[in-house]
Design a protein that fits this description.
single chain, 117 residues, mainly alpha, 0% strand, globular
Length: 117
């Protein structure tokens, strides 16, 4: 078991430089979604999407394979929902707003997948 100081050092030093920056972006977007959409109905779905992406990405910074697979699974579920839902109202409610960036970040994860533990 690592202490908090070692964990934060590993989250910054262990992965490629891009990964901690993307983690900061995910955290900032989570805070933005929470404070911007909290009064909207069904906003909790967007908050759950961002919370899932953020949590998996933080563990991706620790170079965990299960986190990479979880992030990829969330992206695939998001893409399946995006292509199967027909109603614009359902798309607005149930699909992540950042799907293009999530697909781009998934390519980064796949590119570095062999280095994960």
């Amino acid at each position: 078991m690592r202490d908090i100081k070692t964990l934060f050092r590993d989250l910054i030093k262990k992965p490629p430089q891009l990964f901690p920056l993307v983690a900061l972006f995910h955290i900032a977007m989570l805070v933005y979604v929470v404070f911007n959409d909290i009064s909207e109905p069904y906003a909790w779905i967007q908050i759950l999407w961002m919370l899932g992406y953020t949590a998996f990405w933080i563990f991706i910074c620790d170079m965990r394979k299960w986190a990479a697979l979880g992030y990829l699974a969330l992206t695939v579920i998001d893409l399946i929902l995006r292509f199967t839902l027909k109603s614009p109202d359902n798309l607005a409610m149930y699909v992540s707003d950042m799907f293009i960036l999530d697909v781009l970040f998934s390519f980064f994860v796949l590119f570095y997948y062999r280095r994960f533990d």
